[in-house]
Amino acid sequence: MSSEPSSRIIPVPPFDYLVFGATGDLTRRKLIPALYHRFLDGQFDERSRIIGISRTPWDDDKFRQVAREAVETSAQETYRDEAVIERFLRCFSYVPNDPRDRDHWADLSGHLREDADVVRAFYLAVAPSVFAPICTYLSEMGYARRDSRLVLEKPLGHDLASSRQINEAVGRVFAEDQVYRIDHYLGKETVQNLLTLRFANTLFEPIWNSAHIDHIQLTVSETIGTEGRAYYDQSGALRDMVQNHLLQLLCLVAMEPPPSDEANALRDEKRKVLRSLRPIVGEDVARLTVRGQYTGVTSDNARVPGYLEELESGEPSETETFVAVRAEIENWRWKGVPFYLRTGKRLANKVSEIVIQFRAIPHSIFTYAEGSPRPNRLVIRLQPDEGVRLFLMIKDPGPGGMRLRQVPLNLSFAETFSARMPEAYERLLLDVIRGNQTLFMRRDELESAWAWIDPIRKAWDESDEPLPAYTVGTWGPTASVALIERDGRTWHEANDDAKPL
Ligand code: BG6
Asked: pLDDT at position 252, please?
């Protein structure tokens, strides 16, 4: 069964997708399921090739078997079609290869087609320390053509200096217009919808500024822990989530209207936002940021492990699993409007949303007994239950005089559209083949984001303050509540929606 109406499916040209790190978790959990759905929808067929590369000594059959399992465990039953899976698996082949071992470099000539009509893409789902050797290998073996594309997975460095090193190593082989830096948040449907909401309606843009908006909240909360991801302890929530996903969301909310949705037009505007972020340095770090680490609790007599207990090393760790930041953008549009960002693991709920809180009305004509009008609020929910809700004041219907009530105008994507919501990677993987860089980060954007993050990280590293703890299943350390309440504001909670006045 196809998951989209066929009128919207525009096939891409045949491709050779080389996936470095093919035996890894990302390939199994995200890349293969995403490619399967695009195949199922007829966006590409057996003329395309997916070539797995890794040090592990697998062969074609083993890679196909792993791909089959990945599809069977991820695709809902309605979308599992045995005949399609069989055809899909024909695209797969595998080459054991360690690009760091120059003496044993694998010959890919039998796998890569020279035909200029076949798009050639290299996907680097590997640690960044291997980016440079892979680029050298691709260049010296003559596989990197001027029209081939390079996809880079995060982490793209751990600070500005390391990110520059990576970009320079990559830049020696690939031009910027060939490089696709993944931030999978940009591939999420509702994130793209943010662009439509802002720039395909006249309603919001005239009031999208400090004259009408009181503040903005960006929350990306998860209920899962770090799930044994080895890199996390070196990374922490600031690098893992804020530097990329949250700042990208902030850019899309705050940027000026670009002249078009062409990749560089959009990325120019995002870059300006990043450069307008007020630096948080020195003593301001303690005032404007909050970090925390989850600790275990005993609930129903079952002990839930905390971050330290989950760490395999058993060593003490100062890595933050929660961050909240009060950011400001220094430009005409946003002067004085705080952007409250928060993200964390093992929190009360899994939710990613953007809350635009408008200003209060200047004067109420209603009596105290009738109720006080609450400021309008636009909530853009990225996940789960993608949708947009605009909170408005209305009169509570029925007799009994005037009673004010706040209700949401609710646009739930699941209720409005019957089509399956594609996963972020589905869009991004095929945008690479289409040659569309709009939803990928440009080098200067990435470096501006690091330049803003680095002083925060530095101040934390130099601080003697103990890392605050928070209990699994809560909304993070109490200091995060204080961060916003100090300004006379509160975090929007998902169940606020249903609350009567
Ligand atoms: C990744 C982070 O980029 O995003 C993970 O490295 C995090 O730590 C994940 O769990 C969250 O993505 P999503 O799409 O589930 O919100």
From this structure: 98
Please give all residues whose beta carbon lies within 6 A of any atom in ligand 1, as ranges: 222, 240, 352
Rounded Cα–Cα distance for residues 265 and 81 (Å): 41
- Ligand 1 atom showing the smallest separation from residue 382 Cα: 16
Which pLDDT score is estimated for 6?
47
Closest of 339, 341, 388 to residue 241, by C-alpha:
341
Q: How far is the CA of 153 from the centre of ligand 1 (A)?
A: 12
215 is catalytic: no
Between β-strands 297-299 and 302-304, what pairing exists: parallel, antiparallel or unpaired? Answer: antiparallel
The pick from 25, 186, 245 for probing ligand 1's pocket by mutation, whose C-beta has the most ligand atoms within 8 angstroms, reads: 245
Strands 302-304 and 149-152 turn out to be unpaired
State the distance from the centre of ligand 1 to the C-alpha of 139, rounded, in angstroms: 32
Residues of the chain with pLDDT under 70: 1-7, 298-302, 494-501
For ligand 1, what atom is nearest to the CA of residue 220? 16
Closest-CA residue, ligand 1 atom 2, reads 240
Distance of CA 236 from the midpoint of ligand 1 (Å): 12
Options 37, 158, 245, 492, the catalytic residue: 245
- Measured from the Cβ of residue 33, the count of other Cβ atoms closer than 10 Å reads 21
CA–centroid distance, 363 to ligand 1, in Å, is: 43
**Secondary element (H or E) of residue 121:** strand 119-124
Cα distance between residue 47 and residue 193, in whole Å: 32
Quickly count helices (H) and strands (E) in the chain.
16, 17
Ligand 1 atom 13: the closest Cα is on which residue?
A: 185
Q: Nearest-CA neighbor of 31 among 66, 76, 57? A: 66
The answer to whether the CB of 49 falls within 8 A of the CB of 15 is yes
Question: What integer pLDDT is reported at residue 300 of this predicted model?
Answer: 60
Which single residue is written with the structure tokens 């002067």? 335
Residue 364, Ramachandran bin (φ over 0: left; ψ between -120 and 50: alpha; else beta): beta
Question: Beta-carbon neighbour count of residue 165 at 10 Å?
Answer: 14
pLDDT of residue 499: 44
Q: What residue's CA is closest to ligand 1, atom 4? A: 241
**CA 131–ligand 1 middle distance (angstroms):** 21
Residue 176 DSSP code: G
Q: Tell which one of 74, 218, 227, 240 to mutate to probe ligand 1, the residue whose CB is within 8 A of the most ligand atoms.
A: 240
What DSSP state is assigned to residue 382?
Answer: E
CA distance linking residue 246 with residue 326, whole number of Å: 12
DSSP reduced 3-state for 255: coil
Please, are residues 53 and 101 in contact by the beta-carbon 8 Å criterion? Answer: no
Hey, what amino acid is at 391?
F
What is the side-by-side order of every strand in the sheet holding 351-358? Answer: 404-412, 387-395, 377-383, 351-358, 213-221, 339-344, 322-327, 289-295, 469-471
- Note the pLDDT of residue 312: 74
- Structure tokens given for 159: 């600070």
- C-alpha 191/C-alpha 194 separation (Å) is 5
